[in-house]
Specification:
The chain has twelve helices and 15 strands. The protein is α/β, with parallel strands linked by helices. The protein folds into two domains: 126 residues, Rossmann fold (3-Layer(aba) Sandwich); 127 residues, 3-Layer(aba) Sandwich (Rossmann fold), CATH 3.40.50. The strands form three sheets. It has a seven-stranded mixed β-sheet with strand order 3-2-4-5-7-6-12, with helices on both faces. Strand 13, helix 10 and strand 14 form a beta-alpha-beta unit. Helix 1 packs parallel to helix 7, helix 3 packs parallel to helix 5 and helix 8 crosses helix 12. The longest helix is centred in the N-terminal third of the chain and has 13 residues. The two termini are 22 Å apart.
Amino acid sequence: MLNTAPYRTVLKPYGQALVELARKRPEVLCLSADLSRQCEVDLFQEQIPDRFLLTGMAEAHMMGMAGSLAREGFIPFVHTFGVFATRRPLDQIANAIAYPDLPVKIIGFMPGISSPGGPSHQAIDDVALMRALPNMTVIDVADATEIGQVVEEVADIPGPVYLRLKRGEIPVIFDESHRFSVDRAQLLQEGSDVTLVTNGMMLASCIAAARTLEDAGISAAVVNVPVIKPIDTATIAEQISRSGAVIAVENHSIIGGLGSAVAEIIAERGLAATLRRVGLDDCFAEGSKSAPFLFEKYGLSTQRIIDEAWGLVGRAGSAPLAAAPDLDAGEYAPV
């Protein structure tokens, strides 16, 4: 089910999957806010130009257009960077898409601090904003395999969807046997001492952390939660109950995203569990020449997960160090 790190990478799996979907589904439209190449939909523009709409840098207008097109029976897929897809046009999303429960699929690229471009380009609160909207499904997938499967699934989800996607070189973490599920989180590794609940770009780091912890005698479960809303409460609660210790790991603010959803599960189920959250610690990140520098600086790293787990289970002394695999061209490993 899982490939071994470092992972091979592929380019533009989302753009290819959307073109394949549109060839089968004539009601699928592609909207872009002047970031076509950066959001992989230049492929759509080249191959299906009659269903491609370039709105320019007018995200609020684009959301209104998408709502109107959805009312006419189309399934609009709307594309821009995550921060521009959520903060800037939030009122239009709420009133023109979410309130009437229309099948508009909002695709936000460069999640969290994967952009080195500073606070204006870093979508650190997009999950929190979209989780708060009634009728909105919120998804954060981890790799090219999930991306290849989620596009068709998203088209069939009733109502609006917000999908977070990394851009650029996308790792292949899952093998061909993996199946993305809209309804179920996936227990990727069993463990009894601590549970790592994660998704998106942080999944690879959690897998690496769990293997390092296992070598040090700590049994760590890894639960992949690509669908944050509606969340699979049963699977998460069951695993938390087994371990009594949980770390929610996300490429997002620790407020309002996956960590908050896990806290809600613990509270509402009355679970006897201790929670730690790894994410952006209620702050804006700075700009940088590279995203990996930001992941390290702001504690979204494999080592941070190991350190948190080590302390949470009460181990004395220093935590083991995360392995740093050698990378060849076209390979990916977590920070």
